């Protein structure tokens, strides 16, 4: 899952306080504001750099984020300025031709684009007539290109579906 680490500066001005980050993604059907866990802000009268990790983020999405500090005695909340960032797009995968079909084997092809990120691909084969499922080994890739794979020892006499699955470290 895609995640981000948010950083900001808070100052409790000597009082008891807590902080969290709020982040909202653009998109459909409507944006939802998420929050990181509430963290105690030590009662110091100085700027303190803080950070927190987001929950899962959607690929190819622009987010706004801001730090929020709350005085735990008066419950007065102050929000910082908003920042924006965009997550990497999801990798693309297109399953190509199936060739070399025999009663117990087949070869697969496809294309991918990880948008320059490090990633992996594998072909996933399932039977539409039984619970059979098989996967090729994960293979490291980066950028874009064409790929191939094969499986043997497939149970004969079944109809199969194949798909190319691509992941990347950005999405």
Protein architecture, described:
- The protein has strands spanning 5-10, 17-25, 33-35, 39-41, 48-53, 62-71, 77-79, 83-86, 92-102, 105-127, 133-135, 139-151, 160-168.
- Strands 2, 3, 4, 6, 7 and 8 form a six-stranded antiparallel β-sheet that branches.
- With 171 residues, it is mostly beta strands.
- Strand 6 and strand 7 (77-79) form a beta hairpin.
- The mean pLDDT is 92.
Q: Keywords, please?
A:
single chain, 171 residues, mainly beta, five-stranded antiparallel β-sheet, 13 strands, 0% helix
TL;DR of this structure?
This protein has strands at residues 5-10, 17-25, 33-35, 39-41, 48-53, 62-71, 77-79, 83-86, 92-102, 105-127, 133-135, 139-151, 160-168. With 171 residues, the chain is mainly β.
